[in-house]
Design a protein that fits this description.
It contains two helices and 20 strands. The protein is mostly beta strands and 271 residues long. The chain has two domains: 129 residues, Immunoglobulin-like (Sandwich); 116 residues, Immunoglobulin-like (Sandwich). It is rod-shaped, with a radius of gyration of 39 Å.
Length: 271
Amino acid sequence: MGCLEKKYKKDVSRKNPECISNNTNNSNNTNNNSNNIVLEAILSINGARDNNFTFSAKGSTVSNTAGNYIVRYEWDLNNDGSYDVATKQEYYEIIWKDLYSNYYDNNYNITSITATLKITDNLGNQDTDTESLLLESPVVIIPTFIPNAVLSISGVSGSDFTFSCEGSTPGDTRNGSIVNYEWDLNNDGIYDVSTIKNTYTINWDALITNYYNSNFNKDAITATLRITDNTGSQGTDTESHSVTTITISSGDQGNQLVNTSGSTSTTTTSK
């Protein structure tokens, strides 16, 4: 603040009284002319963590009879004694990230903002004001890492099918581990098999009989994998493996079953 209240003392060597400021805050009023110019800096800070901050000099005044006016506003954004920005307008805006990273040692968790405003009038008179703004404590977010499930299906109708989750990873790829694998072999929402290994193999007949009602009339095997890591977090993946049945003949030669990969197998049926 500036020289708000004035006391006068007699100086026998001078005709004019001397203005003595009674202000007890961090003001640095340098008014020194005979027109009793009183310069008053008023700083306000508005903002919140993760939002923009506005430093305002609104309300700062020059009180005099000579028509003086403020020509310069300087902003020490971290109150370190060095003015970081100078403007002609009575405010300065900055985004939160730039404020804490450039002026508060890149410390996101700071608890308050303290800044100093210095105003200068057209005759070079100056005044300062220092203010602080308390910040709400940052919300501590404990990251949850979701495991990445990767399911692949391989096999040919009439032979073994292998369901694999090779390439799956726990949520914490540095220290985590996958502790359980569950296999929904027909994608009906029910996990049919649970293993501690990352593969499960079943022959064609058992797959069709147990999980497709002994009547496979689909174009693909569709299954879902669910993995659980050591923190209890889970991830899933659903994949399909095309299997096309083509009837070649109904004689002793049997029916030929072909999958999309080009592999074939033959089953023999009696007359």
